[in-house]
Amino acid sequence: MSGAEGLKPDTLPLSEASPPGGARHRADQSLRALEAELAGRDMGRERITVHWILFLVLLAGAFLIRDSPWHSSSSLHTLMEAIATVLAFIVGGLALVRFYSRKEATFLFIGTGFLGAALLDLNHALLTAEPFLIREGAQAENLFAWTWTAERIFLSLFLLASIIAWRQEAKGGEGEAVAEGSVYAYALGLTLLNLFFFEWVPLSRAHVPGLWMMRPAEYVPGLFFLLSFVGYFVKGAWRRDAFEHWLLISLLIATMAHVAYMAFSQTRFDGMFDAAHLLKVSSYTAMLTGLLFSVYQTFRRESQVLGALTQANDALAGEVTVRARTEEALKEGRARLQDFLDNASDLIQSVAPDGRILYVNSAWKRTLGYTDEQLERISILQIVHPLHQKVVKQEFDRVLAGADPRRFSIELLSAEGRVVIVSGSLAAQMANGRAVATQGIFRDVTEQRLAERQLADSKANLAALVENTGDAIWSVDRNHRLITFNSAFSLAMEARTGREPTVGNVPDEIFHAGDVEWYREVYRRAVRGDRHVVLRTDEVDGQLRYFELYANPIQGAQGITGAVLFGKDVTPRVRAEQALRVAKDEAEAANKAKSDFLASMSHELRTPLNSVIGFTNVLLKNKEGHLKDKDLGFLQRVLANGKHLLELINEVLDLAKIEAGRMELVIEPVDLGDLVTETVQQLEGQAKVKEGNVALVARVPQGLGPVDTDAAKLKQVIINLVGNALKFTHEGAVTVRLEVGTDEKTPVAIAVQDTGIGIAPERLSAIFEAFQQAEAGTARKYGGTGLGLAISRSLCLLMGYDLIVESKEGEGSTFTIAMGPRAPRARRPADADGKVATRGPAVHVPATPVGAAVGRLRGFKVLVVDDEADSRDLMVDYLTDFGCEVVTAPDGQACLAAARAHRPDLITLDLLMPDVSGWDVLSRLKEDPELGRIPVVVISVVARDDRSGLAGAAELIPKPIERDELLGVLVRYLPARVEGHDVSTG
C-alpha cells in the first residue's frame, strides 16, 4: 500500500453486504450465465474434424465409383426423387416454423428455398418417371439433366441468399430489413418459371463428351453451394450451434454431389448418377437434422429463460429484506475494517497535530518494537532519526494546512535503536471542516534501500574498474549513438582524431572517415546478437599497433538495446604469433628439405645397393667354378651386410615418411585369416634355422569376415613382430593368435606371443621409441637398429589401430595389434577399367616349385627398361639364365619404340628415369590398343613408396629384386606351358 487520502472512521468496506439493487445485479448475472450455457461450448476442433473426414470419404467414394459398372433403373431414380421431395417439404416447413418462432432472415430463405426445391423435385420426379416420360433418346437424357440442374441451382441460390441476409441483419441499422413478401414472391416466380420452362423451351445438350467432366453445368450449383459453405464457415457459429454445424455438412454434401459425382456422370442411372441423387437425399436429411436440433434448442432456451426470469423476480422480491440487513452489515464492515487495519502488512498510523500517537496497527508495532505503554509517553518525532525530523515536521504542517499527499522516505528508530527505512505518505483526517489528525501509510523498504546502496557501491566499483583497466571500453545504442565510455577510449580517440568524444556521438563524429563503415559493421553485427572478436591495425605515434576488439550485445528486457565494446592492445601477442608463424614456416621448410633429401638419398643409396646385392647373387652362383670357398664366404658376408644396410635404409626412410605424414594407405577388403597364415608360413624358415627348438604357430579361427585395411602394411607389422619374437626366443614357441569379437566373426586383435627373454618393466615405454631396445646390450648381442617397433607402432596408429605390449622378464612378451574403429582412409587409385590396382591378378600357380620352370621359358621375349646400366645387366643375366630372350631400353622413349618393334611377352619397368618417367611410360602403354595387353611389372626402388598413377601395373616389386621372386613373376604372367603344366595367368 502507498499513501492514502486519510482514514476516516465512517469509511467501511462493502465485502459481504449487498447495496440496493444487488438482487437485480445477481439476476442479470444469472441471465448472462444462462445465455452462455445455452450458447454451448466451443466444439470447433471436433466439428472441423468431422467436416474433413466427410470431405475425404466423399472424395474417395467418387474415385471408387467413377469406373464402376453399376447401372440402375428409372424406378430407383423415381423413388430417390420422391424421398427427396418429401424431405424438402418437411425441411421447408420446419424452417419457416423456426423463422416465425424467432424471426431470422436465414431461416426465411432456407424455408422458401426448400419449399420451392420440393416443387421442382416433384416436377423432376414426374417428368422423368417411366409412365410420364414423353421424350426419348437424347431429349430424355437432356430432360433428366436440366430438370435436376435447375432445381439444384434454385436451392443453391436461396441458400447463398440466406448467408447474405444474415450479413445484412448483422449490420443492424446500416441496411434495410428483408421483406417476407418479396422473398415469397421471388421464390414462387422462380419456381413457376422452372416448372413451365421445360415445357416451352427445347432442351440443349447437357453432356459434353470432349471435356474431362461430362456435365460442366453441374459446377454452377456446385459453386453456389461452395460459396454458401464458405460463408457459413467464416461466420463461425457452427462451433457452438448444432444447426449451423449440420447446415455445413448439408452444404458440403451438396457441393461434392455436383463437382465430384454428377459432373462425371456419363449416362442416366450409372454409379455417379445414382450416388449424386443419394447424396442429395443425404444433404436434405442433414439439413432436417440441424433444424430439429435448432427447434429443440429454441424450446429449451425459452423454458430456461422463463425459469431464470422467475428466479430474477424472486431475487428482486427479496431486495426489501436485503435493504433491512444493510445497516447491520455496515456495522460488521466497520469491525472488519478495524481487523484489516490491524492485520495489514504496511505500517499504518494516526497522529495528532501536536505529535501524539493516536493509533498504530500491529505491523507498525511489530516492525518498530514499541509497546502500547511506550507509545503513550512519546511523540512521533522522538522515533524519527534526527537527520529526518525537520522533513517530517514540514510534511506534517503541510498536510494539516490542506495540501495533497505526496510520497517521501524517512528513517525511523526502533525500540532497540535499529534504523528502519520507510516510504509512504501522509494525509489529513478532517472533522467538521478542519484537520484533526494526520493518517499515514508507510512500507518498510529497509532491505530495498540497502540493496540500492549496495548496487550504487557496486556501480561505483565497476566504474572505477572500467576507468582503471587501461583498455578502451565504450557502449552504443541500436542507432550507433555513443552511450558510455571510459577515459582510455576518450584519450585514444582524442589522440587519433583531435576530437574529444561526447555522449550521443555517432561514428562519423568519433572516427576517421575511412574507419566509420568498419565500426558500423562491427556495431551492426553486435546489435544483431553476434558476440564476436575482430582484430584491427592502427598507426599510433608512427608505429603499427594491433588492437583486439570484443563486441558484445546488450540484452535488455525488450531485447537487444545496443552493444558494449572492449578494445585491447595486443601488439606484443600478435608480434609473438608472427614470430611463431615464421618459425613454423622455417621448420616446415626444413622438414621439406629433409623429405627431399631423404627422397633423393632413397634413390642414390638403394640404386647402387641393388647392383651390389644383385651382382653378389650372380657371383655366388659360381657358374665357372673359379671361386674358392673362402671367396664365396666373403661374398656371403657382402650379401648379408648389403641386405642389412638396405633394410636399415628402408626403415629410416619409412620412419621419416611416417613422421612427415607422407605415408599413404591402400585400403581394401582383406581376409586376415589368410594374411596371418600366409605370413607365418613365409617366416617358418627363420624358425627352422634357429638354434634350439622354437616352434612358430598360427591360431586362426574359421569363418572370419573381411576387414578393410592396408594388407601390405599390416603384414609388415606382423613380420616385424614375429621377427623380433624369433630373435629373442631360444626355446618354446612363438604364437600368432587372431582374436575375434563376441560374434566370433569380426577380428578385433592380432597377438604375437613368445616365450623369450622378456622386457624389464622400466623399459616397456621406451621400446617403441626410435633406436631404442629393451637393454643397452641387446643390439650388440642380437643385432638390429631399434627402429622396427617404432615403425610398427606408427603404422598401426596410421591404420587406426594401436600396438600394446605385455611382458614379464624371463618369461616372454605379448605384442597385440588392437584393431579399434577406423577413420576413413584414401583408397588405392582405380585402373582404366575402374578396378582397383593390386599386387597382381589372382593366378593359378602349379604346386611344383617355380624353380622347375628354369630353362623351360625359352621362346618368351622380355623387354627390360631401366636407365641404370648395372640394373639392366643384372636383369639380362637373370632372364637369360631362365631361357628368355631379352631386349633392353635405357629410357621411356626407347621403351615405347622397342615395344612396338619387338612386341615382347612381358615388360619390366623402372620408374625413376630421365625425360619420360616410368609413370608416363606405363600410362602410354596402357592407352595403346596394340601394347595395352602386355603385362608390365614395375621394378623400382620407389615401387613401395608411391603407388599413385600405377593403375594397370601387373606387379609392383621393390629393388633389389631376388632371383626367385623374378622367376615367380615370370611364371605368373608369361603364358608358358611346361610339360603340360599350365602356368599362365588364366
Condensed summary:
The strands form six sheets. Strands 2-1-5-4-3 form a five-stranded antiparallel β-sheet. A five-stranded antiparallel β-sheet has the order 7-6-10-9-8. Helix 7 (219-235) runs antiparallel to helix 8 (242-261). 52% of the residues lie in helices and 16% in strands.
Please describe what this structure looks like.
52% of the residues lie in helices and 16% in strands. It has 986 residues and is an alpha+beta fold. The strands form six sheets. A five-stranded antiparallel beta sheet has the order 2-1-5-4-3. A five-stranded antiparallel beta sheet has the order 7-6-10-9-8.
Give me some keywords for this one.
alpha+beta; 52% helix; flat; 27 helices; disordered C terminus; 5-stranded antiparallel sheet; single chain; 986 residues
Number of strands: 24
Q: How are the strands of the biggest sheet laid out side by side?
A: 2-1-5-4-3
Q: Which class do the helix and strand fractions yield?
A: alpha+beta
Largest sheet: 5 strands, antiparallel
Q: What Rg, in angstroms, do the CA atoms define?
A: 54 Å
The geometry reads as: flat
What layout of secondary structure does this protein have?
Elements (H helix, E strand, L loop, with lengths): L21 H18 L4 H22 L8 H28 L3 H24 L8 H34 L9 H21 L18 H17 L6 H20 L9 H47 L1 H25 L3 E5 L5 E4 L1 H7 L3 H6 L11 H12 L7 E6 L5 E13 L2 E11 L1 H23 L3 E6 L4 E4 L1 H11 L9 H4 L2 H15 L4 E9 L2 E14 L2 E11 L1 H50 L8 H31 L8 E3 L1 H18 L4 E6 L7 E3 L1 H17 L4 E9 L6 E8 L23 H5 L5 H11 L3 E7 L3 E7 L42 E5 L3 H14 L2 E5 L2 H11 L3 E4 L8 H10 L8 E5 L14 E4 L4 H11 L3 E2 L2 E2 L4
Parallel strand pairs: 12-14, 18-19, 18-20, 20-21, 21-22
Antiparallel strand pairs: 1-2, 1-5, 3-4, 4-5, 6-7, 6-10, 8-9, 9-10, 11-13, 14-15, 15-17, 16-17, 23-24
